[in-house]
Design a protein that fits this description.
Elements: H1 6-16, E1 21-22, H2 23-30, H3 34-46, E2 51-54, E3 60-63, H4 76-91, H5 99-111, H6 115-127, H7 142-154, E4 158-163, E5 169-182, E6 185-192, E7 198-202, E8 206-211, H8 224-233, E9 239-246, H9 249-253, E10 261-265, E11 271-278, H10 284-289, E12 295-299, H11 301-319
Antiparallel strand pairs: 1-3, 2-3, 4-5, 4-8, 5-6, 6-7, 9-11, 9-12, 10-11
Helix pairs in contact: 1-3, 2-3, 4-5
């Protein structure tokens, strides 16, 4: 099936206004030739839209009596974007709704699609597989997400109840500077009235968000995404790692996964300090091997042993020779 275009849907809107439209009139309104109008009409017929051809001197096209355009008309690209957006966002844990709500929304979109498009998208959804496993749901409530977004846009304070990682519950008042989605979770960052500092809160731990009277100003140049990543990198873990790496801050930052490391320039020409926290050290030597920059381990000592162990394994593998008679 030829993919519908915006002009095909524009043709449908013209016909929806009622009456018979001549081919010449339609061509003029759409900015195409008469042959293209006939082709567009064929596309609508392929989509099960009851377009009728009227012959004669004043003939042209009209819609069958009683036809009403569904509340949602999407091209192939638009329908694919909507349905895959629902599927992928749910898998990544970013949809602020229950699984039932996502399935209901998907079914509603699917019902209003023309049969031909719907069958093709059904085939994709039935056969598509994902290499990354679905994340456990950590989605906030819809009202929490929308309330905080509204407060951030209008620069209004917001009050909410927050349950911290250890289970401690508190009442907070926040000046929300921005909302950030990262690694399957939603965060809000802004000035916390209790501490007077910029803090970051997980939205799935927020309840009873309420916009308050008043206004505030966001500091000039404040970057919510950068602040959230920096805050996550500062969360305490079992190991605190410090490295000196030769290169610029931009070059070195790009070599580490976002949100786990802070990079700081040093007075030493061409060197930076990298700090990160980790529950385990066994993955860090592989990251260092891919740096393609000189580095010095400042701490912990246990990381040196991990790097030496990786170096030995790589050397042994590089020096290994095939056994006699073994296929090369």
């Amino acid at each position: 099936m030829t993919r519908p275009t915006a002009r095909v849907l524009a043709l449908l809107e013209i016909l929806q206004s009622g009456g018979t439209r001549t081919v010449a009139e339609l061509a003029g309104r759409l900015g195409v030739d008469e042959r293209t109008v006939r082709r567009y009409a064929g596309h609508l017929i392929d989509l099960d839209v009851p377009v009728r051809s009227v012959r004669g001197r004043y003939g042209g096209y009209r819609l069958a009596p009683g036809f009403r355009m569904p509340p949602l008309m999407l091209t192939d690209d638009e329908a694919l974007a909507v349905l895959l957006g629902l599927v992928v966002a749910r898998r990544d844990g970013l949809v602020p709704a229950s699984l039932t709500a996502v399935e209901s929304a998907t079914a509603k979109v699917r019902r209003v699609l023309p049969q031909a498009i719907g069958q093709r998208l059904d085939a994709l959804l039935a056969t598509a597989e994902f290499t990354r496993p679905a994340r456990a749901a950590n989605s906030p409530g819809t009202d929490v997400l929308l309330t905080l977004a509204e407060a951030a846009r209008s620069r209004r304070p917001v009050a909410f109840a927050y349950t911290a990682w250890g289970g401690r519950r508190s009442e907070r008042t926040l000046h929300p500077y921005g909302i950030v989605a990262h690694s399957g979770r939603w965060y809000v960052t802004g000035a916390d009235s209790d501490s007077g500092e910029v803090r970051t809160f997980r939205l799935d731990r927020i309840e009873n968000a309420t916009v308050l009277p008043g206004e505030f100003e966001v500091p000039t140049g404040f970057d919510p995404g950068e602040r959230v990543l920096t805050g996550l990198a500062e969360v305490p873990y079992r190991h605190e790692v410090s490295l000196r790496v030769q290169g610029t801050a931009e070059e070195v930052s790009a070599r580490f996964p976002a949100g786990i490391a802070t990079v700081q320039g040093l007075p030493d020409d061409g060197w930076v300090r990298v700090r990160l926290r980790a529950e385990r050290l066994d993955w860090i030597p592989g990251v260092l091997a891919r740096l393609d920059h000189a580095f010095v381990i400042e701490q912990p000592e246990a990381l040196r042993d991990q790097v030496h162990a990786l170096a030995r394994r790589l050397t042994e593998s590089a020096d290994a020779r095939p056994a006699p008679g073994q296929d090369s």
